């Protein structure tokens, strides 16, 4: 069964909603192949909401090379983990941007907020 005209899906699912600066972030990335385009890689980036309401790139977090073992209609789960920078501040907004890239450089994107807890010294 093929989903002609439908795009692949990517979804990062984090284990927690709130984090301390420098804490390990863990979760899974669910991929769903929905057409014949070969899925080549996953990229996860950390972004920060800057003054003026524009999201700014902070850091490349992880990359995964993907084989094309899935048929259209099948899904796969990839384990994910990274460590947040110790410089993250609870007064700023952050998100992880997960990109699924195909062999024709088409992208599907997922955004997940990273909520930082205040630290008390």
UniProtKB/TrEMBL annotation:
Q: What is this protein called?
A: Sporulation protein
Q: Where does this protein come from, organism-wise? A: Mangrovibacillus cuniculi
Q: Where is the organism placed in the taxonomic lineage, from the top?
A: Bacteria, Bacillati, Bacillota, Bacilli, Bacillales
